[in-house]
Amino acid sequence: MKLSNTYTRFLSFLNRKHAVPALLFLGIVCLSACKKSYLDVVPDNVATIDNAFANRNEAEKYLFTCYSYLPQEGHPDKNPAFSGGDEAWTYWPMTEDFFYLDPYNIARGNQNRANPYMNYWDGYDGKSLWQGIRACNTFLDNVDKVTDLQPYLKVRWIAEAKFLKAYFHWYLFRMYGPIPIADKNLPITASPEELKVFRQPVDTVVNYISNLIDQATAGDDNTGLPSVITSSATELGRITKVAALAIKARLLVTAASPLFNGNNDFAGLKGRDGKLLFNPQYDASKWTRAADACKIAIDAATAAGLKLYYFNPGIVVVNDAQKTEMNIRNSVCEKWNSELIWGLTSGGNPTFWLQEFACPQLDPNNINLDMKGKLAPPLKMAELFYTKNGVPIEEDKTWDYANRFKLRTVTAQDAGMQNGYQTVGLHFEREPRFYADMAFDGSTWFMKNGTFNIQSKLGEYTGKKQSRLYSVTGYYTKKIVNWNLVYTATNTTVESYPWPVMRLSDLYLLYAESLNESGNSAAALPYLNQIRARAGLNTVESSWTNFSTTPTKYTTVDGLRDIIQHERNIEMAFEGSRFWDLRRWKTAPQTLSAPIYGWDILQSTFEDYNRRVLLYNPKFVGPRDYFWPIKEYNLQVNPNLVQNSGW
């Protein structure tokens, strides 16, 4: 890991104050994060299984060991979906300001089979998900030994362990496709042949994970997993019944999507046992099954009191545009808000580094080297968002698409930008999510302690002044920075929020997609329209009828599919969804092979700065790049494994 002096001082402090030694136990490597939360606790100096389950306290520590294997998805270098795709780009090569270079190498097409990047199969960031599954199995095998555990708690803990076991299988499935199933731990006396497991067909894996989640969510509201967390001091971040049902919905939507449903790209991929790993036949009933799972999860969320987030400014005075902007930003960044279905707290400060990597220098009077501003959206992300009329920029018959790269002067009527400033037409008359999610030269950045101007031409306080701490595209990822972040020249206060693995708008979009694909397109529109209303937009029907060059697009399955996918790309932008969505939709070869453009950040005048510059020509190779390669060494050790196609 290569860190700046600031990183080194911070991690040194954490190591002195909070680090817990790694535990090597029965083949399970329980590595803790630097900053601990109660979910990162591991049993202390446990010598035997009997000691680990001797009483309730020790058993609960072991349950939290299972939680400790959850990947830190809110960390910029530990989630491939932040910098491994096309939502955020950065300068290259990097010599500091990073933990791992793995995701950046994936984005640049450098993945390999000898030593795969972000290899959660064998171990990445100290986490092998197979070891996490083994920990869950160990817990399930031994929890009956705990003599002082109340029956209702035992049922809940078993449900948590079963869900985590399902989630680790799901995480591996999404990365590697058909995987082995580790339902039971093999005994120490197992023969070498018993250890040589086979990959299982996609449908078998999906059904296994789905059934495990069904077991975890069985019973009424008073049985097993709680519908809501009532003890906020000790249990936030633990799984709920609603969260488990929502993850099942995501699993089944993924399984119904083109990557897994009727995909002939992998028709020849067979296991060593002769099993066909991908079913090449399309099955429409998978979408019906997915829609049913989404509806069950939505009903459970509603019963638990979850609802789309709307910003309450309290004593802070905001105008209508700022209120809409905070509806959008704080649906992600406000801790434990009304929309959050499952938030990850792994690492104790789950979004600390994400915010520092995303936030640029906002205040010309206080330059702080902790504000990296390096997670830079490419120009394609700026073009993704709708016009103010709620349709794509290339479809809006009233928007000047042809002149989008020509300079215009900002007026007082242009919200989100600096009056009198010059910027390209692309930045004018766009939907509120554009200004909430992204910042650019000439935009404003609203925070709780004030509104800041972004000025990022060469030498300006937000722009490039040295070999680091700048946006390589000229854009900044505003959406994931909490509005409570405050810094001076010598101090930084970052309010870390739980990373939203699933929020309600995500679930609504999954449901709308499933409804459309299963022949209920009209029923999908209300769920899209609720999300659009929160973002300050009119309905799909109104927007397309009145402003689109294809006014009836929403009335066909194909047309509405395009709208839903576009809506999802916008609503879930910069949340780690696009990386996986492009794969399951099988649009990745086209989208992820498109050139990466930014503005000419090495220029100091309006005219020179606002010129497109080609930064990189990525190449997504299908079908190879849909899945991670299995490390070659594993294939040598276990000849029953087969490599993914193309690797």
TrEMBL record:
It is found in: Cell outer membrane. InterPro entries: SusD-like_N, SusD_RagB_dom, TPR-like_helical_dom_sf. Transmembrane segments: none annotated. Residues 339-647 form the RagB/SusD domain. GO terms for cellular component: cell outer membrane. Belongs to the SusD family. This is Starch-binding associating with outer membrane. It comes from Mucilaginibacter pineti.
